[in-house]
Amino acid sequence: MTELRASVRQVVEFSLHERDLSPAAFAAKRMREGAAAHKARQSAGAREETAYQAEKSLSADYAAREITLRVTGRADGLLLAADGARIVEEIKLGTAENPLVPAHRAQAAMYGHMLCQKEGLTGVRLRILYVDENGAPVRLYEEEADSARLKGEFEALCAAYCAWAERLLARRRARDASLFGLAFPYGAYRAGQRTFAANVYVAIRERKRLFAQAPTGIGKTMAALYPAALALGEGKCARVLMLTARTTGRKSAMDALAILRAHGARLLAVEIAAKDKVCPMEKRDCRPEVCPYAKGFYDRLPDALAEALTGGDWGRGQLDALAQKHTLCPFELALSLAQEADVVVCDVPCSGLGIIRKKPDIRYKDMASLASLPAIQSAILDNASRYVRRGGTLVYSTCTVLPEENERVTDAFLRAHPDFTYDTFALPGPIGTVEGHITLWPQRHGTDGFYICRMTRKE
């Protein structure tokens, strides 16, 4: 049996998802407002309610055919009613006219089952409490639920989640078998290429950071992807991410993946480009009432993912075609597919001024055309943050030295996302410990110009 872990929210939203996409800026703002409202309500609950417990950790297991699923989460509130009933409280930001959202009730039911199982209760009272931005209650739904009914709801939601997870597991097993003993796709290594590849493999195996510079022409792309694919098949990493700042770098990565696939590697690769580059609308407006690719996005997404999981390299052209077929936003489809992809190639734009000595043609760029880059970089960072678990790490890096593309982007991100904070990390040699972020300069550090930032999402 394979053991998997999932959050209550993941399991619930697999079956009871929202229908429409929300613009990233609105979603981030709503998330911040929701977090503040939760804290305010929980503080009031601690003062006013009997035996109120906020953010109580709970868990329960579910056994499927090939998977044992551990579902975990933190209940917003547990308390004792005046009549002695145990109440499971689910707090949501809403209005006085807010209808009961099935997913919200299901989350409360999941925690209700976990509490019954943990404490041997015959039932609990489910409370779905909608609050305003200040945490004040504006709409309340309550119901009595016995333990047998809660168990049935828990198992039904877990069964649906596990059926999909078992399909993903079968694909990963086939992938791992194809990578076992995979030979280097060329007859021989170029000078320096084998050493580069060996260091990449060891860095992944030992969970170390590899800071490498190598001359043009030794085959760095394949020297990075080939050992990463071997490590992936051996379970030494969960996914391979390759970030490129130029179209040529992105093309090299996708070409190298195609070669590996031609030699038998059953890799699922997805290319992520900037939203403005791939948007099919004449003018980008991500509001579901305007964009047909956002309206009903989550209703159509499962069929597209099922088709994509047959394998292959989902480059920009293939993703655009798949998105058109299912009437989906190609950018959000790429992000969704990236959750299961083995290799993710991100075309992340920056001015590239940090590598101007190697690519002197950069100096002839129209500097006015670079003015839009910080907004694009901020949007990419904001989108990426949605997929970072609590306690997880988010790294932002560019090959430029301009503050407006670097620390101004990350400082603004942290102001907008108080649940993230700068995190200390170490770089090789004399650089040593870095307090959150650093700009590397050729004249100071003997490297190209880079910006590296590490952030952590608070537990």
First-residue to last-residue Cα separation: 29 Å
- Morphology call: globular
**What fraction of residues sit in β-strands?**
15-25%
pLDDT under 50 segments (min length 5)?
none
Number of β-strand runs: 16
What topology emerges from the helices and strands here?
Elements: E1 2-7, H1 8-15, H2 24-48, E2 50-63, E3 67-80, E4 86-93, H3 102-119, E5 123-131, E6 137-146, H4 147-179, H5 193-205, H6 220-233, E7 240-244, H7 247-262, E8 268-272, H8 275-278, H9 297-308, E9 312-314, H10 316-326, H11 330-338, E10 343-347, H12 373-385, E11 393-398, H13 407-416, E12 420-422, E13 424-427, E14 432-435, E15 437-440, H14 442-445, E16 450-457
Parallel strand pairs: 1-3, 4-5, 7-10, 8-9, 8-10
Antiparallel strand pairs: 2-3, 3-4, 5-6, 11-16, 12-16, 13-14, 15-16
Verbal overview:
With 459 residues, the protein is α/β, with parallel strands linked by helices. Helices cover 41% and strands 24% of the residues. It has helices spanning 8-15, 24-48, 102-119, 147-179, 193-205, 220-233, 247-262, 275-278, 297-308, 316-326, 330-338, 373-385, 407-416, 442-445, and strands spanning 2-7, 50-63, 67-80, 86-93, 123-131, 137-146, 240-244, 268-272, 312-314, 343-347, 393-398, 420-422, 424-427, 432-435, 437-440, 450-457. The strands form 4 sheets. Strands 1, 2, 3, 4, 5 and 6 form a 6-stranded mixed sheet that branches. Strands 7-10-8-9 form a 4-stranded parallel sheet, sandwiched between helices. α1 (8-15) packs across α4 and α5 runs parallel beside α6. The radius of gyration is 24 Å and the shape is globular. The mean pLDDT is 89.
